[in-house]
Amino acid sequence: MKKVIEVKNLFYTYSNGLFKLNDINFEIYENETIGIIGANGAGKTTLILNLNGILKGNGLIKIFDMELNNENIRKIRKKLQIVFQNPDDQLFSPTVFEDVSFGPLNLGLYKDDVLKRVEEALEKVDMTEYKYYFPDHLSFGEKKKISIATILSMKPEIIIFDEPTIGLDPYSRKNIVNIINTLEGTKIIASHDLDIIYKLCDRVILLNKGKIIKIGLKDDILKDKILLEENNLEVPLTALINF
């Protein structure tokens, strides 16, 4: 399998001196879906923000064999995109169309190509009819779907989802899970929702206090009651049903 992400000896410390990542090492391969789990404060969001250079720690990060640095960061961000936990952090334009077209326009694409990408992205999240809506008038679940569309219109090869189901009602949660499940490429999901991690992911990275406790197949981690309880988590219902 082709390696698409490599992290070696990654450390990150916040300005107040609080360690958040401590000697992080892992690899992710093409078309994998990886879950990043851990209790509050484990370092999940800090880790994914280091993967595209929003936060900059000490250590080696390679994306498609390109070292994450000032020289390569623009090329890397074309290939790796993050869907943020709060869609209001992703949506800033007057209309849905303008939000979803923003990325392709900044790639310098021709108008027809931009329009095609917008249509395709909105269709994938079942929001085509909302093209000219004001994002402020949408529900939280609808905003989540539009925030995913803004990333899909960029056609990245790696998509990272930060808590994709947080704050959603059961119907909206199911929609988001189905959307993620249908997407191609490499996906990374950081979440407290261990049921969707079990449903969607191949492997899991377990974090606690900024350290990797274990990396393994989802069954080896999400069915290990003792391991999860030691790290302030519980076996998800989906895993119990599949025992």
Radius of gyration over all CA atoms, rounded: 18 Å
Question: What's the N-to-C terminus distance?
Answer: 29 Å
Q: Beta-strand level of the residues, as a percent range? A: 25-35%
The helix content is 25-40%
What general outline do the C-alpha atoms trace?
A: globular
Order of helices and strands: EEEHEEHEHHHEHEHEEHHH
**Computed structural class:** alpha/beta
Report the mean per-residue pLDDT as an integer: 94
Q: For the largest beta sheet, what order do the strands appear in spatially?
A: 6-7-8-3-9-10
Number of β-strand runs: 10
- What is the count of DSSP helices, taking H or I runs of 4+ residues? 10
Biggest β-sheet: count, sense, barrel?
A: 6 strands, mixed
Note poorly predicted spans: none
Explain this structure to me?
With 243 residues, the protein is an alpha/beta fold. It is built from 10 helices and 10 strands. The protein has helices at 44-51, 73-79, 96-106, 111-124, 140-152, 170-182, 194-200, 218-222, 225-230, 237-241; strands spanning 3-13, 19-29, 33-37, 58-63, 66-67, 80-83, 158-162, 186-190, 203-208, 211-217. The strands form 2 sheets. Strands 6-7-8-3-9-10 form a 6-stranded mixed β-sheet, with helices on both faces. Strands 2-1-4-5 form a 4-stranded antiparallel β-sheet, covered by helices on one side. A hairpin with a 5-residue loop joins strand 1 and strand 2. Helix 3 (96-106) packs across helix 4 and helix 3 runs parallel beside helix 5 (140-152).
